[in-house]
Design a protein that fits this description.
45% helix, Rossmann fold, 6-stranded parallel beta sheet, 734 residues, Arc Repressor Mutant, subunit A, 29 helices
Length: 734
């Protein structure tokens, strides 16, 4: 056996089904062993949800309770599906299908199409923009490149929400969408787009789901075949399912309920694509007897980061907030989050780059550092600051600023205007200085003094052009005698300087693109009103989604977390900006926020049918402080508060636990953890009611071990013990 076999890249396959469960915490173990009936896993950020569900599948397969070919696990990205398949192989369950919704549906559609419809499946169009452009031309609707992308996005939203063209205007109005064109025009383009596809025998990405739903609804024989094949379903990131994906899942299930869903309503940040947490929040209503397991033990972030994340959600309102989970860090303490207020955006970027350099010099790898912002147009100033500091970086989920089409196009126009010689160009005749010349040129490509309403491609394009205008203003402020040609040369130099190697680089990403990732150090920048929440977030629900976006950003950090904002855009500007309202009561010197919705999610645990219970925050029984550390919650006191430990009882409990673990063939923590034993030895409960109030003693453990523990607390011998602790090592055969 080579050394590589022992590395984390090549872990050993567990020797048995029981070995699959080794190392899982109590709640993860509940997930892994709940193999029948509906199961809902409410999993907070960093709580090991993928670990829990892959071990659940593997345990079922290795124990013989699940056939690998009968399990279908679905998620939302190819990366997540690939990771799930890899973990299942490492656990000895390689025959399980783990796919995206679209991949699973396409596979079924390709197989059943000849039988259901006849002939070959229509060709799948990867990019629908060209056909949308043709549809717009037929409707005599002129769309520029950015409007074309936005209208295409509206068509995609309509299809995943199962909205037909004639219903689009009413549906868009009801959902409060900021539409890029007149809704009637979009409906006309949508209808013509569908007609063009039919004429050419084409289907798009959304059609794959729609057609699979249609086949399963209309052909009961095909639906029965699929249901005989797949009898157990697992859905990851369930808060992100669209109505169309939910309908497909229901058709796969039929009248069965062997379904396990995993999600967190507090991480719903893609509602603009049609995703909704309602299916997750309504799961218990649809399945009254479901097992609900809450994962709140955060293995990713330090208690300091977790405390801030919990504080953000404590202010949240609305239905998703009512089911929020209060995370409990399982890591050691780290540095407190750092808050930074800067005079202007360049100063914020320079300060961030300086702190990044300090972290790298202290030993934090550049690839373990991320700078996260609300919109992609914010990246340019950070790209420049990192380049100036000699720090390599990479952009995720967006093109580099100087590689964006609108920026390249603007560069060509400015270069042409500079060659033409300023005032010889009619459009620059009234421009008195370089910034005026830039504004005049870029106004022909979509720049306006005020930003456009709404979000999407039009707003992103405007933000990019506005960044060039600001750059011109800053450049001339530093060099009053500069010409337009000098500015073009500066742009070329900046574009060239930022093409640094990115193999080991700091990640620059939007908050949306950062979902599902994590780093040792995270910098959340540009946290001002108008940017987070974004200006066009008007309704209460839209504002709450912006709060969740910041929550996702905070929970990406393992150890180091920095939050910053600038009071003005440019040096010397009026300091009129305000830090985001989401940090009120959390950052030093800010006023306390209004209370949010009461949390029903609360602490971790298991619920089996019946009514859900609400629990408040854990507080120290000595000083009354709110507890967030996992060990402190177990003890129900601060680590440094006085302890009333009965040391003799604690030793008797440890000996009893060792014997129980030996008889059960399980690790000692599966009986009770050290912290739970300490809590018992401090509280010395005399009744079952007092014992079950101790964290870590649930109903099942009360039934199994309660009589023994109460006997030990009363100074008696455990009634169910076969041998005493003193003789157990002498008589291992017992």
């Amino acid at each position: 056996m080579t050394a590589a076999t022992h590395s984390t890249l090549f872990p050993q396959v567990p020797a048995s089904a029981d070995a699959v469960l080794d190392g899982l915490d109590p709640e993860q173990r509940e997930v892994a062993t709940a193999l029948s009936g509906p199961v809902c896993v409410l999993a907070g950020a960093g709580t090991g949800k993928t670990r829990a569900i892959t071990h659940r599948i593997a345990y079922g397969v290795r124990s013989g309770m699940l056939q690998p070919s009968s399990v279908l696990a679905v998620t939302f990205t190819n990366r997540a599906a690939g990771e799930m398949r890899g973990r299942l192989r490492q656990l000895g369950a390689g025959g399980v299908q783990a796919r995206t919704f679209h991949s699973a549906a396409l596979r079924q559609l390709q197989y059943f199409w000849p039988k259901a419809v006849g002939g070959e499946l229509p060709r799948l169009v990867d990019r629908k923009v060209q056909i949308v452009a043709e549809a717009a031309a037929r409707c005599r609707v002129r769309l520029d490149r950015n409007e074309l992308r936005d209208v295409t996005g509206e068509i995609e939203w309509a299809k995943v929400t199962q909205t037909v063209p004639e219903d689009y205007p009413a549906a868009a109005a009801k959902s409060g969408r900021e539409v890029p064109r007149d809704p009637a025009e979009i409906a006309g383009v949508y209808g013509t787009y569908e007609q063009l596809k039919r004429e050419r025998g084409l289907i798009d990405f959304e059609d794959v789901l729609l057609l699979t739903v249609g086949v399963l609804q209309d052909r009961h024989d095909i639906a029965d075949t699929v249901r005989r094949q797949y009898q157990h379903f697992v859905v990851d990131e369930y808060q992100d399912v669209s109505p169309l994906q939910q309908r497909l899942l229901e058709l796969w299930l039929g009248d069965r309920d062997n379904l396990c869903v995993v999600g967190d309503a507090s991480q719903t940040i893609y509602s603009f694509t049609g995703a909704t947490p309602d299916h997750l929040l309504n799961f218990r209503t649809r399945h009254p007897h479901a097992t609900v397991v809450k994962l709140v033990r955060d293995y990713r972030s330090t208690p300091e980061v977790v405390h801030l994340a919990n504080g953000l959600l404590s202010q949240a309102r609305g239905r998703a907030a009512e089911s929020r989970l209060e995370l409990v860090s399982q890591r050691g303490h780290g540095p407190q989050p750092v808050y930074g207020e800067y005079a202007d955006e360049p100063a914020e970027a320079e300060g961030t780059a300086r702190r990044v350099r300090e972290l790298i010099d202290s030993g934090v790898p550049a690839s373990e550092i991320a700078i996260l912002y609300r919109i992609n147009a914010q990246s340019e100033v950070y790209e420049q600051a990192l380049a100036d500091a000699g720090v390599p970086y990479q952009l995720r989920g967006a093109e580099r600023f100087f590689e964006r089409p609108e920026v390249r196009e603007a560069g060509l126009l400015l270069r042409g205007a500079a060659r033409a010689g300023g005032h010889s160009d009619p459009q620059l005749a009234d421009a008195e200085d370089v910034p005026s010349q830039v504004r005049a040129v870029l106004s022909t490509r979509g720049w306006t003094p005020e930003p456009p309403a709404g979000s999407g491609a039009v707003r992103d394009r405007w933000e990019s052009l506005a960044a060039l205008v600001r750059l011109a203003e800053d450049f001339v402020r530093a060099r009053p005698d500069a010409t337009l040609g000098d500015l073009v040369a500066e742009l070329d130099e900046r574009a060239s300087a930022q093409h640094a190697p990115t193999v080991e680089g700091v990640t620059l990403a939007s908050l949306h693109a950062a979902k599902g990732l994590e780093w040792d150090a995270v910098f959340l920048v540009g946290l001002t009103e108008g940017m987070l929440p974004i200006t066009y977030a008007k309704t209460d629900e839209q504002v709450e989604e912006e709060r969740r976006l910041l929550y996702v950003g905070v929970t990406r950090a393992r150890v180091h977390l920095s939050l910053s904002w600038a009071l003005s855009r440019a040096p010397g500007g009026r300091p009129s900006r305000r830090p985001t309202r989401f940090l009120n009561g959390l950052r030093p010197g800010s006023a306390a926020p209004r209370p949010g919705s009461p949390a029903a999610g609360g602490r971790g645990g298991v619920e089996r049918g019946g009514a859900r219970k609400r629990r408040g925050s854990a507080r120290c029984r000595v000083c009354g402080r709110t507890l967030t550390d996992a060990g402190e919650i177990k003890l129900m006191r601060c680590e440094d508060c006085p302890s009333e430990l009965d040391e003799g009882l604690y030793e008797r409990l440890r000996d009893w636990r060792a014997e129980q673990a030996r008889q059960l063939g399980q690790p000692a923590f599966c009986v009770f953890t050290d912290k739970t034993l300490l809590a018992i030895a401090e509280a010395v409960p005399g009744t079952e009611a007092e014992l079950v109030c101790i964290s870590g003693v649930g109903g099942r453990k009360l039934d199994r071990f309660g009589a023994d523990v109460l006997a030990l607390c009363a100074g008696k011998e455990p009634t169910s013990a076969d041998v005493s602790p003193d003789t157990s090592e002498e008589s291992p055969e017992k």
